[in-house]
Structure formats: structure tokens, C-alpha cells
Design goal:
This protein has 97 residues and is α+β, with helices and mostly antiparallel strands. It has helices at 19-30, 44-52, 78-96; strands spanning 9-14, 36-39, 60-64, 70-74. It contains 3 helices and 4 strands.
Length: 97
């Protein structure tokens, strides 16, 4: 993260043929939420990092906030995604103020 980032950033680590990955992407897309997608099958460092965090299933969702706080989880979790979407919208509104 660079010091000038003013919005939360969501990175989505996915695998092919993954129902929960597709559900997470659909949720984010339906809520017009930007995210970066990284394939765990193509990025060995990302896979190693996910495993180091204790995750063995996809998707792995990693959120970094402008404050430097981080949050992460595995699987399709609509409640946590809704929290992220609300937070991202709040940061966007604050940027417009």
C-alpha cells in the first residue's frame, strides 16, 4: 500500500471452477465494487501467502484500509462483503467532501 491511498483496497485470490469465488465476484460486481483478482493457480507467491495465513480454500479475501488496518477471510461471506462495500462507499463519500 502506498501512503497516498485514500480508499480501502480489496484483493480477491481465486481458483478456477470455484463456486464461492464466482459468488464473491458476483456480489462485488453487483455492488459496483472495485477489486483486484489474483489467481492462486498462477501466482505461487500468492498461494504461499494464503497458506501462511492458514487458508486452504478459495477465495481468500484480503482488505487493506487507508489507516493501515487489514482484514482477511476465506470463502463467500456476504456479511463481511457487505461491511466492506459500506466502508468503501463511506470512504468515497469522504473523498467527495
Amino acid at each position: 500500500m502506498t501512503m497516498c491511498e485514500s480508499k480501502p483496497v480489496l484483493t480477491l485470490y481465486t481458483k478456477s471452477n470455484c463456486f464461492q469465488c464466482e459468488a464473491t465476484k458476483k456480489y462485488l460486481n453487483n455492488h459496483n465494487t472495485r477489486y483486484q483478482e489474483i489467481s492462486l493457480e498462477e501466482d505461487e507467491l500468492a498461494l504461499a501467502a494464503a497458506k501462511d495465513l492458514g487458508y486452504r480454500a478459495a477465495p481468500v479475501v484480503f482488505v487493506r484500509y487507508p489507516s493501515g488496518a487489514e482484514s482477511h477471510w476465506a470463502g463467500f461471506n456476504p456479511g463481511r462483503l457487505a461491511d466492506f462495500v459500506a466502508s468503501a462507499k463511506k470512504w468515497a463519500r469522504d473523498d467527495l467532501s
